[in-house]
Amino acid sequence: MASPNHPPDHGGDSVETRSSELRKDSVTNRWVIFSPARAKRPTDFKSKSPENPNPKPSSCPFCIGREHECAPEIFRMPDDPNWKIRVIENLYPALSRNLENQSKQPVTNTSRSIVGFGFHDVVIESPVHSIELSDIDPVGIGDVLLTYRKRIEQITQHDSINYIQVFKNQGASAGASMSHSHSQIMALPVIPPTVSSRLDGTKDHYEETGKCCLCEAKSKHFVIDESSHFVSVAPFAATFPFEVWIIPKDHSSHFHHLDDVKAIDLGGLLKLMLQKIAKQLNDPPYNYMIHTSPLKVTETQLPYTHWFLQIVPQLSGVGGFEIGSGCYINPVFPEDAAQVLREVSLT
Ligand SMILES: [Zn+2]
Ligand SMILES: [Zn+2]
Questions:
Q1: Is there a single domain that holds both residue 161 and residue 211?
Q2: CA-CA-CA-CA torsion sign (303, 290, 229, 6)
Q3: How many angstroms separate the alpha carbon of residue 343 from the centre of ligand 2?
Q4: Domain carrying residue 221
Q5: Euclidean distance between CA atoms 229 and 244, whole angstroms
Q6: Which of 61, 112, 304, 317 has its CA 20 to 30 A from that of 178?
Q7: 146 pLDDT exceeds 50?
Q8: Taking every annotated instance into account, which residue ranges of this chain make up the domain Galactose-1-phosphate uridyl transferase C-terminal (predicted)?
Q9: How many domains does the structure of the chain reveal?
Q10: Are residues 178 and 306 in the same domain?
Q11: What CATH number is given to the structural domain containing 275?
């Protein structure tokens, strides 16, 4: 794998001869310490414990036929009793959708407190309890992505919302409280710090080089696989072991501009990555996050805002050093993770 950004002696050497290295990613704007001495070989990396020692229940309120036990429904696809995907309110929302009238005060740089207005929705990805997202075919995963798009388009009608975060917690240690396959959409009145930091990083890169650093993904990161419209990579300064980004090949600022054809294409590549991670890493809990741009992005910001989807298998915890410094220690070089994931055979 050719990469202009790492010393050539990292190419095919054994882990034992590596020394620690700090890398800064121009997208996350964050330093990561690569510390091979703390790791086993990349191929030995596995999720340690069985995900849930208690057997999964065979049904739950997210299952088809138990809709009356859930928080209110927002919409379903298709709109009939035999739904495939449902969007509902979160029963325990982090933000309240009922505070919009009190949320009109402007947010300034010195604001220290604002009303907790926002949306916190749940996307039930399948009517059947035992089906996981990676079991669904690419068209069906594309439908889940188009469901995110539809709900985001609805939320953008609310003027006080500035950022919409789509995320999935799969497995109890990744934060999922329900084992039935689902993801979540959180709409916030403020722009979160990782988004601001990312915009600072991609802006600096654009001002220095005149290029969007995510359009350059194939030359700046370590390619795993690609589809017609997307490429999956291990990022140059991956924060976490076996972290994967799926990036649109064409410049696109907002996830919700995804069209139907690209949704199916992305569904296929997302399925492939989830299957490879599950097979290689012993079915670990994982999170994925869709990193899109703030809703009110300006004309001048458009050239360096480019959305992507980040998958993080939960293989190592976050400790005091990470919380204290904001720097992360990653024991697996991403060029090794990319090679391992490229070579996973699913047959
Ligand atoms: Zn269920
Ligand atoms: Zn771009």
A1: no
A2: positive
A3: 28
A4: 15-49+192-342
A5: 16
A6: 317
A7: yes
A8: 203-308
A9: 2
A10: no
A11: 3.30.428.10
- Kindly report, residue by residue over 187-245, the tens digit of the pLDDT: 999 899 889 999 999 999 999 999 999 999 999 999 999 999 999 999 999 999 999 99
Q: Note whether 306 and 227 are same-domain residues.
A: yes
Instruction: Convert the pLDDT of each residue in 41-80 to its tens digit.
Output: 777 778 776 555 555 678 899 999 999 999 999 999 999 9
- The residue out of 131, 154, 188 marking a domain boundary is 188
Question: Is the same domain home to 200 and 277?
Answer: yes
Asked, for residue 6, whether it belongs to a domain, the answer is no
pLDDT at 12 > cutoff 70: no
Q: How far is CA 42 from CA 8, 37, 102, 104, 314, in A?
A: 19, 12, 51, 50, 15
From the CA of 303, how far away is ligand 2's center (Å)?
7
Rg (CA), the chain: 20
Q: Are residues 136 and 248 in the same domain?
A: no
Report the separation in Å between the CA atom of 240 and the middle of ligand 2, taken as the mean of its atom positions.
Answer: 23
* Bind-site residues: 60, 63, 129, 180
**Catalytic machinery residues:** 182
Maximum distance among all Cα pairs of the chain, rounded to whole angstroms: 61
- Which-ligand-closest: CA of 127? 1
Q: Binding site residues for Zn(2+), as ranges?
A: 60, 63, 129, 180
Residue 265 CA to chain centroid, in angstroms? Answer: 17
First to last CA, the chain: 24
Whether residue 98 is predicted with pLDDT greater than 80 in this model: the reply is: yes
Q: Which ligand lies nearest to the CA atom of residue 250 in the structure?
A: 2
Domain-located, residue 3: no
| pLDDT at residue 291 greater than cutoff 70 | yes
Percent of the chain with pLDDT over 90: 67
- What is the whole-number distance in angstroms between the Cα of residue 82 and the centre of ligand 1? 15
Higher-confidence position of 15 and 105: 105
* Residue 40, pLDDT score: 66
Nearest ligand to the CA of 179 is 1
